[in-house]
Design a protein that fits this description.
Helix 1 runs antiparallel to helix 4, helix 2 crosses helix 4 and helix 3 packs antiparallel against helix 4. The chain is mostly helical. The chain has 9 helices and no strands. The longest helix is centred in the middle third of the chain and has 30 residues.
């Protein structure tokens, strides 16, 4: 195997490890907040930390999860690696968040980490994603509706603005939709909690 191949494998594994950091669990522990995996929806993510009752914790969780996505791809940016290597690291970071090594492979739903990934891949897309999420949330008062709408529109944005990353974004979008399958069912049944 070439040195380039070994570097790629190392960076992909590192991206998975970054993604595996259980931000919500660490934040809640630091702020003496109940474990989000045992409270509310049971999801270790920003929305559930907010539901538990901590805006400070929710903001810290959001920042940490976005930061994971950025940091997972930072070595690719520094080394100016091509889109293939960046795509592999992006996917590894998302898989790490969904199935974290450090938290019994029980992770969050990946929206904030995916936003961080898009900041690194092509930051204007992340701005549009944030706008879409905020717009749909403002209209529906439902966090999952904003997340699902953002996941659905992201491949279109990538196809228009950064087509080199379209294949990996399609895979990531499919994974994120799967992570929201319970929310989708609840939305269809009119049972999804609103803010």
């Amino acid at each position: 195997m070439t040195d380039t191949g070994l570097i790629t494998i190392g960076l992909v594994f590192l991206a998975y490890l970054w993604g595996s950091i259980p931000t919500a669990v660490l934040v809640c522990h630091a702020l003496n907040i109940p474990d989000p995996r045992k409270q509310g929806s049971g999801n270790p993510g920003t929305t559930n930390v907010l539901r538990i009752g901590s805006r400070k914790g929710a903001l810290a969780t959001l920042a940490g999860d976005v930061g994971k996505g950025i940091l997972a791809l930072l070595p690719c940016s520094i080394l100016q690696l091509p889109s293939t290597e960046q795509s592999l690291c992006a996917l590894a970071a998302i898989i790490g968040h969904l199935f974290p090594l450090f938290s019994s492979f029980r992770g969050g739903k990946g929206i904030a980490t995916a936003l961080g990934v898009c900041v690194s891949l092509f930051w204007p897309i992340a701005i549009l994603q944030t706008f879409v999420w905020c717009l749909i949330f403002a209209l529906s008062r439902t966090a999952s509706m904003g997340s699902i709408a953002t996941v659905l529109v992201t491949p279109i944005l990538v196809w228009l603005a950064a087509p080199a990353y379209l294949n990996v974004i399609l895979v990531i979008s499919a994974l994120l939709l799967l992570s929201h399958r319970t929310n989708i069912r609840n939305l269809l049944q009119g049972k999804e909690p609103r803010f």
